[in-house]
Amino acid sequence: MASNDPVATAATATERVGSSRPEVIAAAAARLGAHASQLAILLDFDGTLAPIVDDPAAAAPDPAAASAARTLATRVALLACVTGRPALQARGLLGVDTIAYTGLHGAEVLQPGAAAPEVPEAFAADGAAVAAIIAQARAEPQGLAGLDLEEKGPIVALHWRRAVDPLAAQARAEELADRAVAAGLRSGTGRAVLELRPALELTKGDGVQALLSTAPEVRHAVFAGDDVTDLDAFARLRALVADGTLEGATLIAVAGADAPPQVADAADLVLSTPADLGAFLTDVVSHASAATRPPKGA
Questions:
Q1: Nearest by Cα to 58 from 159, 194, 196, 177
Q2: Quick check: 273 and 52 in contact, CB under 8 A?
Q3: What's the domain count of the chain?
Q4: When comparing pLDDT for 103 and 293, which is higher?
Q5: Could you tell me if residue 4 is inside a domain?
Q6: What is the DSSP string of the chain?
Q7: What is the CA radius of gyration of the chain?
């Protein structure tokens, strides 16, 4: 079906899937910037805006990406961070409080300047059940087998990147995930991490849709991500294009050395690092310099 989207990437049909060609990426940035007033830019944090690091607390955004995000927030219809971290934590790390955040894989929505995120009561209530599984594991002889715990409110992430025996730590994480599922909870995987999650199934696709519902002027959406949880956002945006809610979407994979290959396979554009994303966003800024964000309600 032919697209009326003026922001569609300049690649041909055969080049669109996973293109890393510099001229295609540059043309996409120019087109996106030229139509900034109708544009949503939605960005994952870890592995996308910020390099993956051994200690999640030590993560820091690429300086150019953070600077461009701050500028684009005044140029595009919607700019937001869509992350698996708690939304307030992501805002503190990125350092931009004038944009929206969705945290915990779509469960939280933190509006610009808000003191706290909105989160479904049923999602938050399962935090005690997740915590009980961790407490039981700590009391067992095997303990956590070298896993690093990252507590995200109702979600607990089990990292084995720094474990002395990563295979044993991963096996322990998978065992705890099985317990969570048996208890009616959910689990989810990522790059050297497994999460224990509440029963209520929310994804980054749900977070993206919630954000877009606040910006009806958006006609084209960009999403950049690096991990399998970002595929839910990719799929939701393609569905919104298919049903006519959006005129188009540009899906960007930030495909580092250990990134799941299916993310690049599903993307329109492929970048290698958060620094590359920073350069791309800076290029979008350069083409959006004359644009102004329309006032809400206009």
A1: 159
A2: no
A3: 2
A4: 103
A5: no
A6: -----TT--SS-TTTSTTB--HHHHHHHHHHHHHTGGGEEEEE-TBTTTB---SSGGG----HHHHHHHHHHTTTSSEEEEE-SS-HHHHHHHHT--SSEEEETTTTEEE-TT-SS-B--HHHHHTHHHHHHHHHHHHHSTTTTTTPEEEEETTEEEEE-TT-SSHHHHHHHHHHHHHHHHHTT-EEEEETTEEEEE-SS---HHHHHHHHHTT-TT--EEEEEE-STTHHHHHHHHHHHHHTTS-SEEEEEEE--TTS-HHHHHH-SEEESSHHHHHHHHHHHHHHSTT--PPPTT-
A7: 19
Q: What sign does the dihedral 114-119-125-128 (CA atoms) show?
A: negative
Q: Which residues contact 23 (CB under 8 A, 6 or more apart)?
A: none
Does one domain contain both 159 and 207? no
| Distance from C-alpha of 220 to C-alpha of 181, rounded to nearest angstrom | 37
For the cut 70, the answer to whether the pLDDT of residue 15 exceeds it is no
Kindly report the backbone phi and psi dihedral angles of residue 252, in degrees, each rounded to the nearest multiple of 5, phi listed first. Answer: -120, 130
The whole-model pTM stands at 0.86
Domain span including residue 86: 22-120+202-287
Per-residue pLDDT of 186-244, as tens digits, reads 999 999 999 999 999 999 999 999 999 999 999 999 999 999 999 999 999 999 999 99
Report how far apart the first and last C-alpha atoms of the chain are (Å, whole number).
Answer: 31
Answer for the pair 196, 182: CB distance below 8 angstroms, yes or no.
Answer: no
